[in-house]
Amino acid sequence: MKGYEYSDFNRLSSNARKSTIISEIISIIIFGAIAFAVRAAFCFFEAPDKVIFIVTVVCAVVISIVVIYSLLEMTVGFNRKKYRINEESIEYISGILFVSHTVVPIRRMQQVDIEEGPINRLFKLAEVNLITAGGKLTIELLEKEKAETIVSELKALINKFAKEQKDLLQGGQDNE
């Protein structure tokens, strides 16, 4: 079997990297604040020193895991995210430790929409949600203009396939 070529996949823009970095920094700050608040609460209520030590170690471990994950997401995770769209399917590759390669046949799609979060909006980014009978695929961190183009083209294809299916069903009923 021939090796799979990833050269024709689309990569994310530099604005997508900036959005990822800001999102991960916000996550680190939130988890850090929660860990600090938990430790402060134990100190405030004068918990035994042994308990405060255990809480401090647990908080430090949680923050370390969050920081490591965030660093991996900003580097490895970002570099792995890529997508490809052709006349028959959409492919999306993502992941850090476990790489996911998802292929969604366009004929199976039922709905397509765009979503923007506040950080992505700052960088003119959006995500495209593809809904099928079997689930949902989200292509993250696309330039908004590109996302709108993808959605309009996919909606046109979905409508074309739905019309073909309807015509086939009506043609089958006419022959009876």
Task: Write up what this structure looks like.
With 176 residues, the protein is an alpha+beta fold. The chain is 56% helix and 24% strand. The chain contains four helices and seven strands; from the N terminus they run βααββββαββα. A four-stranded antiparallel sheet has the order 1-2-3-4. A three-stranded antiparallel sheet has the order 5-6-7. It is elongated and about 80 Å long. The two termini are 46 Å apart.
* Succession of helices and strands: EHHEEEEHEEH
Q: Which percent bin holds the helix content?
A: 55-70%
Residue share in β-strands: 15-25%
Rounded to the nearest angstrom, the radius of gyration is 23 Å
Main sheet summary:
4 strands, antiparallel
Label the structural class: alpha+beta
The total of helices stands at 4
Give the N-terminus to C-terminus distance in angstroms: 46 Å
- Outline: elongated
Main sheet: strand order: 1-2-3-4
Mean pLDDT: 90
Briefly, what is this?
This protein is of the alpha+beta class.
What features would you highlight for this structure?
single chain; 176 residues; alpha+beta; 4-stranded antiparallel beta sheet; 3-stranded antiparallel beta sheet; 4 helices
Give a topology summary:
Blueprint: E1 10-11, H1 14-44, H2 49-80, E2 82-85, E3 89-94, E4 100-105, E5 109-115, H3 118-122, E6 125-132, E7 135-143, H4 144-174
